[in-house]
Design brief:
Among the domains are: 28-100, Cytochrome C biogenesis protein (Helicase, Ruva Protein, domain 3); 102-135. Helices cover 64% and strands 0% of the residues. With 160 residues, the protein is mostly helical. Helix 2 packs across helix 3.
Length: 160
Amino acid sequence: MNMVTKLLLCFASVLFTVSVYATPVDTYEFKSADNQERALSLAHQLRCPQCQNQNLVDSNSPVAQDLRFEVYKMVDSGKADSEIIDFMTSRYGDFVLYKPKLDAKTYVLWLGPAGLLVFGLLIGFIFVRRQRIQPAEAEALTPEQQAELDALLNKDKANK
């Protein structure tokens, strides 16, 4: 193969690869630009139940597409944000919220990191304090050990 053919094949493969990653575009017509902004804001706040790590806007799963259209319809019908979020949580649970509400079921989720930080700091403080309180005390030598040490030191001085 000559160089031009190789370049054309490389260029064609890049074009086909880019088209594979293209995402479908929602073609929902909103009644107003405000409704569109509100709907997109809500869809960014809600998690896709199937993908688990993407919001409704970023996900391409069929479930996310359906939920996105549901959010769009509810916004255009005039429902409040809280009503839409309540509908989604009643249907899919608190999992669809990126920022779950603070209630008895989510105390560990909200307060757990702060509790672990305080616990770690307390353990670190106790460890450092114990190290500082215990002075490095030299063990007292017995008279026999002291005599042996003196003999070794005197022998070393005599050799110099």
